[in-house]
């Protein structure tokens, strides 16, 4: 599957947020990238702001345009607030659930764990990062992968009570996806209504 593999600090500086996780470059250069980044006046049209919000969401969750558009169209057919449902679909992606469980330090690392068949859903190996986890399903580390140092390092000191829609189980080194998260519980700084307005134009 295609994915963004370019310089992440550059993207984080564009949005002024550490959307890929802690970023040393961003902490030193908290302004837009490029020769004139520090002097550039921040002035953008309404469309530009909406587009930037969509781009930020895509980069945050590691989703490319076609996948993102498909998720939006799926969300728009459901009853409820479309923007919130879109974020719930993104949160239910297997790579994101692995990240939220603390099994990987970043979503990119979680995606790699899934692709390399280290993760099981209800006891069955699933190597598709975009797999949509359903409420009640258990996502855990494959038995022969439980000794991986990268997973132990990620779990060290991780607070498993941060996300109320996931229930951690130390015995299986994983957790149950209890329900779709409420918008107030999703920590991402994304103005989803702007994305809805963009796609509605």
Give a verbal description of the structure.
This protein is α+β, with helices and mostly antiparallel strands. The protein has two domains: 8-89, Ribosomal Protein S4 Delta 41, Chain A, domain 1 (Orthogonal Bundle), CATH 1.10.1050.10; 93-179, RNA-binding S4 domain (Structural Genomics Hypothetical 15.5 Kd Protein In mrcA-pckA Intergenic Region, Chain A, Roll), CATH 3.10.290. It is 41% helix and 8% strand. It is built from nine helices and five strands, in the order H-H-H-H-H-H-H-E-E-E-H-E-E-H. It has helices spanning 8-15, 24-28, 46-61, 65-76, 82-91, 94-100, 107-115, 149-155, 192-200; strands spanning 119-121, 124-125, 138-141, 166-169, 174-177. It has a five-stranded antiparallel β-sheet with strand order 2-1-3-5-4, covered by helices on one side. A hairpin with a 2-residue loop joins strand 1 and strand 2 (124-125). Helix 3 crosses helix 9 (192-200), helix 4 (65-76) packs across helix 5 and helix 6 packs across helix 7. It is globular, with a radius of gyration of 18 Å.
Tell me, what is the CATH class of the largest domain? Alpha Beta
H-E order:
HHHHHHHEEEHEEH
Class from helix and strand fractions: alpha+beta
* Strand adjacency order, main sheet: 2-1-3-5-4
Proportion of residues in β-strands:
5-15%
| Number of separate strands | 5
What is the count of structural domains? 2
- CATH homology superfamily name of the largest domain: RNA-binding S4 domain
